[in-house]
Model the fold of this input.
Amino acid sequence: MSWILAAPIIIPFATAVLAFLFRRGPEGRWLSVVGSAGLLIASGFLMAEVLREGVVAAQMGQWAAPFGITLVADLLSAVMVVITGITGLAVAIYALADVDEAKEALGFHALYQVLLAGVCGAFLTGDLFNLYVWFEVMLISSFGLLILGGKREQLDGGIKYVTLNLVSTILFLSAVGLLYGMTGTLNMADLHGAVQEVENPGLLIVIAIMFMIAFGVKAAVFPLFFWLPASYHTPAFAVSAIFAGLLTKVGVYSLIRVFTLIFTTDVAYTHTILLWVAGFTMVTGVLGAAAMNDFRRILSFHIISQIGYMILGLALFTPLAIVGAVFYIVHHIIVKANLFLVAGVARRIAGSTDLSAIGGLYKTAPLLGLLFLIPAFSLAGFPPLSGFWAKYVLVKASLDAEAYWIAAVALIVGLLTIYSMTKIWGAAFWKPHPEGQSPKLTSLTARDRAALLVPIASLAILTCIIGFYPEPFVAFAERSAEQLLDPTAYVVAVLGEMPDIAPDPADVAQLEAVE
Amino acid sequence: MELLVAIMVGVLVAASVHLMLARNVLRFLFGLILISNAANLTIFVSGRLTPESPPLIPEGADAPLETVANALPQALVLTAIVIGFGLFAFALALVYRTYQTLGTLNSDEMRLAEPKGENGK
Done:
C-alpha cells in the first residue's frame, strides 16, 4: 500500500539521478521520457487504488500518525498526480525537440524530473512541514529550469521569480511554526481536530491569513501575482508549459487543502476574503492579457485570470462550487500547458512570439491552427469543450449561492478571454506574415515534427474527450468535493479513528448557512 | 524569556523589511537572510523555551521523568536552516551572475523581460 503512494515520488527522483549521469548523451532525454511514462503508470495505479478504497494513507518509516510523516491520497490528490503524469509525459516528449544539447548538458532533464517529484510530493503529503519541504524541492528545481541558458531576459525574470517566491516561502514557514506553537501538531488530519480546540480563534484567523498569502503568492492571485508575468515568457517553451500547467496549481491545491481541511472555523470571514481575491484576480489577469502583444505574455496573464475561477470555487464553499473548482483545475492544466506548447511551435516555424512579427500560419500550417483553436476555445469556454462545463458549473454555483456579482464577473472575464484568443488568432494565423514568409510545419525535420506535435495533439484530444463526455469527470469531481467538504474519511484514513471531539455543530451550522 | 525572543523576532523582521524595500537587489538579499532567521527563531520559540532540561531519558526508564525541552521544533529549524542555506547560495549566485550580465543591481533598471513603454503597441 505504501509503495503505491511513494512510487510517484520515487520514480521521478530515480529518473533524475539517472538522467543527470547521462546528461551528455542522447540517453538522458530518453530516460526522462521513460521516467515520465513510469510516473504516469504509477499515478494510474494510485488512482485505481483510491477509486477502490476511498482515501489511502501510509506512514513513512512506520511512525504512527500524527508523529511520523504521512503520505495520503484522496480523490483530489490522486487526480492531481494523474494530471502531473499526463502533462509530465507530454512535456518530456516535447522537450526532445525543444531543448538543445547545451541545456541538456547542464542537467535540464534531471531538474525537470526533480520538479515533477516535488509537485507529486506536495500533492501526496499529509504533513504541513513536509509540504514546505516539497515546495522547496519544487522551487529550487524551477529556479534552475527558469534560468537555464542564462539569456539576459531569463536572468532578469529569474530575479523577480526567485525573490518573491522566497519571501512567500518564509511566510509559509513562519505560519507553520506559529500553528505548531498553538496546536502542537503538524499532521493535517490531526490539525483538523486540533484547531477546533484552540482557545484563541482570533489568532487562528491571523495564521489562516498568513497561509492564504503564502499560498496566494504561489498560486499567483491578485495582488500577489507580479512574479508570474515577469518570468514565465523567458525560459524554453517546454519549461514555460510545465510551469504554466503545474506550478501555480500546486498553490491552488494547497489553498483548497488547507481551507477545506484545517481553517474552516470561520468560513464567513476567510472565504469572503477569498471571494474578493477571486474576483480581482479574474479581472486583473484578463485585462493584463488584453494589453499584451506577445503570444506567451498573453498566455501568462491568462493563467492569472483562470486561477481566479478556481479560487472562486473554493471561496463559495458550496458542494457544487467545489465540484467546479476541481473540474476547472483538471481542465485548465491540460489546456494551458497545451497553449504554451503551441506557442513554441509557432515560434519555431514563424520565427518569433511577438504577434506583430509573425503571421500567415493558418494558410500554410492549418493543422497548427486547428490544434490552437481547440485549447484556445476551451480556455474561453466555448461549448462543447471542457472549459464550457468548468465555467458552467462555477457560474451555476455562484447563482445558487446568490452571489450574482461574481457570476457576472466570471461571464465578462470569459468574454474578454475570447477577445485575447481572437487577437492571437488574427495576428498569428490570419494576418499575412509581415516579412512575406510562409511558415510551414514541413520546415521542421520529421523527428522534431513528431516530438512537437504528438503531445499537442494528445492533449487536444483529451480536451475534446472531457468536453464531449463530461459526465464521468463531473461525477468524479462530485465525489472529490464530497470528500473535501466532509473530511471524516481523510482523518480516519490517516489517524485510524476519528479523534474524540464533538462533531463541531457550529461548523455544520455555518456550512448550512453558507449554502 | 519567550517575550524577549518574540521581541527580538519583531526587531529582526522590522530590520529585514527595511532592507527588502531597497532597490538594490543585494540589500534585498541581506533582508531575506535576516527574515529567514527570524522565521527560524519563530519556530524555535513556538516550541516553548525550557532552559537546562535536555530531552534525555535516563537509563532504564521508558519516558523522561520530568518536563524536558521539545525536540521537534529544533529538528524543524535544522531542516529549515539547511534548505534556506541552499536557496541563498543559489540566490547569491543568481544576483552575482545578473550583475555580471546586466551590469546593474538596481531593480528599477531591470526591465529586459518587461520593457517599458510597450503598451501593447
